[in-house]
Write a structure and sequence with these properties.
Layout: H1 3-26, E1 40-45, E2 48-52, E3 55-63, E4 67-71, E5 76-78, E6 88-89, E7 94-100, H2 101-106, E8 122-126, E9 131-136, E10 143-144, E11 149-154, E12 160-166, E13 178-182, E14 188-201, E15 206-213, E16 225-231, E17 236-242, E18 247-248, E19 255-260, E20 265-276, E21 280-285, E22 294-297, E23 306-310
Parallel strand pairs: 1-23
Antiparallel strand pairs: 1-22, 2-17, 3-12, 3-16, 4-11, 5-7, 5-10, 6-9, 7-8, 9-11, 12-15, 13-14, 13-16, 14-15, 17-21, 18-19, 19-20, 20-21, 20-23
Length: about 325
């Protein structure tokens, strides 16, 4: 046997020995169980009938439509005390006082003793109805021109929300319809659609309505963005699942749930959804039985036929 042939034979034997050693090292030792792939911890539930209402949710903005501008009726100077923003005013109450420039030069407000001198040059600016001062545009000592705006008041009793309804949803909104006003802090006010306004946005094709609260109204600023919920259908019974059981793709065009095939395997089941609210989703198809176990949590990101472990919480 030549030297090269013997060298090749020794290299082959060394390779076989290394492979055998690796296989022996990877194999579980005697008495040990093979490694088990980790399983996702999940909770399960069943499709249950529940009462649902098809809800239309739209954006609205708070507004004080009844506003009065307080304007100077002469040229002169604003006298103290000046009102402050947020101050409540009554109908007929003096809000601003102006002294004409002629009166200030001649000091007519200080002349006394002559009963024929009835003009003092002091002009009182009064409000026409009850309200609250929204703005104060002039302060004590400011010089104003005749007709210049001094401040703005709004009528709290006319407070409401401006609702823009897409023309495709007009059949679901009508004056007198009850609704719910969802404030940003989580409070919900009962409301009612008051009027339909004769204005529309040509760009986004919406019709404008006003919505007014029907109960106690908290103090809210103007231009506050809220959500308004209107019922598009009467309450009805439907098969539902909690929202957490429903999974969807990035475009939210395909929906599915994960159903237990056995005690340790979950499979993907495409579904068709119907009405939804904050907690429940209507499952229109397929029809699940009361014994079908649907994953309620731990289902996010699972592949079809995923290994799972059911927990009880």
């Amino acid at each position: 046997m030549t030297f090269l042939l013997r060298l090749s034979l020794l290299a082959s034997l060394a390779g076989l020995a290394a492979c055998g050693a690796k296989t022996a090292a990877d194999a579980p030792a005697e008495g040990e169980e093979p490694a088990v792939k980790p399983r996702a911890l999940v909770t399960v539930g069943a499709v249950r009938p529940d009462t649902l209402t098809d809800v239309l949710r739209l954006s609205a903005v708070s507004a004080y439509p009844a506003k009065d501008a307080l304007r100077a009726t002469t040229t002169g100077y604003v006298l103290a005390p000046a009102p402050v923003v947020g101050q409540a005013v009554r109908a007929g109450q003096t809000v601003f006082t102006i002294q004409t420039k002629e009166s200030r030069v001649l000091h007519l407000d200080q002349l006394t003793g002559d009963p024929r001198l009835k003009f003092s040059g002091i002009i009182q600016i009064k409000t026409g109805r009850n309200g609250v001062l929204a703005t104060v545009d002039k302060l004590a000592g400011d010089y104003v021109q005749d007709g210049e705006q001094l401040g703005l008041t709004y009528d709290q009793s006319r407070f409401g929300f401006v609702l823009d309804v897409p023309v495709t949803q007009l059949r679901f909104v009508r004056p007198g319809q009850a609704c719910r006003i969802l404030l940003p802090d989580g409070r919900v006010l009962p409301g009612r659609v008051a009027e339909v306004l004769a204005t529309a946005d040509a760009g986004i094709q919406t019709q404008r309505y006003t919505v007014r609260p029907t109960g106690a109204v908290p103090s809210l600023p103007e231009n506050l963005a809220v959500q308004v919920e209107l019922d598009r259908s009467a309450p009805r019974r439907a098969p539902t699942l909690p929202r957490g059981a429903l999974l969807t793709d990035e475009t939210q065009t395909q929906f599915w749930v994960m159903r237990l095939l056995n005690d340790s395997t979950a499979v993907k089941v495409p579904v068709t959804v119907g009405s939804q609210d904050k907690e429940q989703v209507e499952i229109k198809a397929p029809t699940f039985s009361a014994t079908d176990r649907i994953l309620l949590s731990g289902n996010f990101g699972l592949d079809d036929t995923a290994a799972v472990k059911v927990t009880h919480r």
